[in-house]
Amino acid sequence: MNLQMDISLARDYKSPSQVAKILTENWIAQESYCPSCLNTLTQAKANSRVLDFICKSCEFDFELKSKKGIFSKKITDGAYGAMIERLAKPNSPHFFFMNYSPDFKVQNLIAVPAYFIQPSFIERRKPLSENAKRAGWVGCNILSEKIPNAGKVVLIENSIILDREKVKLKWSQTNFLQTILSINSRSWTIDVLSCIEKLDSVNFSLKQLYFFESELAQKHPKNKHIKDKIRQQLQILRDKGLVEFVSPGFYKLRIISSV
């Protein structure tokens, strides 16, 4: 994998945004791969809505978000309404988050499955002013800091290319979430997983997770049995191999790292 983008492709373009789009999308098509099956990706037709690449092997779609320099905690995306609508669809495109150096070398590349992006992770931006070309248009930001580490599959970190088989294994560990069509049910699993990660320890107890009862109650105000729900989600995570039961009330996190 060559981390240097082909700068010659952009010699006829003057707009920085056009240059970045041409170079980054070409690099993904030529050098990157599908984190699910490791096959090459095909670039989507120009002007495809919220779609940049297709894996013809596993039929997954991907959207690329790239930035010169390090990503902030908010990643700019398109229309707010369209984003919320697409999250409810089972075939919503997955994401690539890329950042690159001023001389167009890839520094970091992370794949995030679409099922890890919850509506609560999407921030509504202010409507464009009346003087704007698209007056009243409402965009959105992806609050990337809210995405659990379990949902961040690293392909490249600090210009180091990671092992593809580890990438595939990390992706496959959580792909059961794609079969959970209910956004609310999926949100519960992801929220509990996020709480476990906040404990910042491989080993944890049920009692420690109960400390997040009020936080989870705010996120799921219709549920009046938060502790029961926590135990239910631990059972799901255990059955899927993400959590190991150690002894009554004690568990071990088994999230695979692609690093």
Could you characterize the architecture of this molecule?
This protein is α+β, with helices and mostly antiparallel strands and 259 residues long. Helices cover 29% and strands 24% of the residues. β2 (53-55) and β3 (60-68) form a beta hairpin. The longest helix has 16 residues, at 16-31.
Number of helices: 7
Helix content: 25-40%
Q: Please give the alpha-carbon distance between the first and last residues.
A: 17 Å
Strand content: 15-25%
Biggest sheet: strand arrangement? 1-2-3-5-6-9-10
Could you tell me the number of beta strands? 13
Compressed to H and E, one letter per element, the order equals: HEEEEHEEEEEEHHEHHHEE
* Shape annotation: globular
Stretches where pLDDT is under 50 for at least 5 consecutive residues are none
Mean pLDDT: 91
What is the SS-derived class? alpha+beta
Q: For this entry, what is the oligomeric state of its chains?
A: single chain
The value of Rg in angstroms is 20 Å
Please give the largest β-sheet.
7 strands, mixed
Topology:
Blueprint: H1 16-31, E1 42-43, E2 53-55, E3 60-68, E4 74-79, H2 80-87, E5 94-100, E6 106-112, E7 122-124, E8 139-143, E9 153-157, E10 160-161, H3 164-173, H4 183-198, E11 203-205, H5 206-210, H6 213-219, H7 226-239, E12 243-247, E13 250-253
Parallel strand pairs: 3-5
Antiparallel strand pairs: 1-2, 2-3, 4-8, 5-6, 6-9, 7-8, 9-10, 11-13, 12-13
Q: Could you give a quick summary of the protein structure above?
A:
The protein has helices at 16-31, 80-87, 164-173, 183-198, 206-210, 213-219, 226-239, and strands spanning 42-43, 53-55, 60-68, 74-79, 94-100, 106-112, 122-124, 139-143, 153-157, 160-161, 203-205, 243-247, 250-253. By secondary structure, it is α+β, with helices and mostly antiparallel strands.
